[in-house]
Amino acid sequence: MLAGLFVLCGCGGGDDTAASGPPKNAPRARILPPQVLFQAQPDLSDADAEALWATAGRVRAELLVNVGRDGVASNARVVAAEPKGQPVAQAFAEAVMRSIPRWKFQPATRDGVPVDAEMTLTMEAEGGASDPSQH
């Protein structure tokens, strides 16, 4: 019923958490952010999936995730769930957070060497109910 419902909207960040700052006048390092190689779909409970399906419009989850130099994600935390105050949005964000350990990442690199990094992930889901404001 919910196949194909979830969309990864964006990945940002790549802030190198191992950086202590380059020395003055040092050549600028080439830093590439982590890349998603495999995106696991969030597992919603039946009740949450039904609530999402009954929702008009989109729900959105934004998370901060640490990606190690081995490409393993850890310490995922929800920074936003929208629409704010909607239990279905918070349930979706928590389901996305629980799915992060199953994701696969190419680690961030600094001058070609893998480094630890923090990145922002945004995922959206479209509810199945029609939005009366669209008619």
Describe the protein.
The chain has 135 residues and is α+β, with helices and mostly antiparallel strands. The protein has a single domain (6-17, 31-127), classed as TolA/TonB C-terminal domain (2-Layer Sandwich). The protein is built from two helices and nine strands. β4 and β5 (73-82) form a beta hairpin. It is elongated and about 55 Å long. Residues 1-5 and 131-135 have low confidence and may be disordered.
SSE order and pairing:
Elements: E1 6-16, E2 31-32, E3 35-38, H1 46-53, E4 58-67, E5 73-82, H2 87-99, E6 104-106, E7 108-110, E8 113-115, E9 117-126
Secondary structure category: alpha+beta
CATH topology: TolA/TonB C-terminal domain
Whole-number total of structural domains: 1
SS element count, helices: 2
Key phrases:
single chain; 135 residues; alpha+beta; TolA/TonB C-terminal domain; four-stranded antiparallel β-sheet; three-stranded antiparallel β-sheet; 2 helices; 9 strands; 16% helix; disordered C terminus
Summarize the structure.
This protein has 135 residues and is an alpha+beta fold. The chain has one domain: 2-Layer Sandwich (TolA/TonB C-terminal domain).
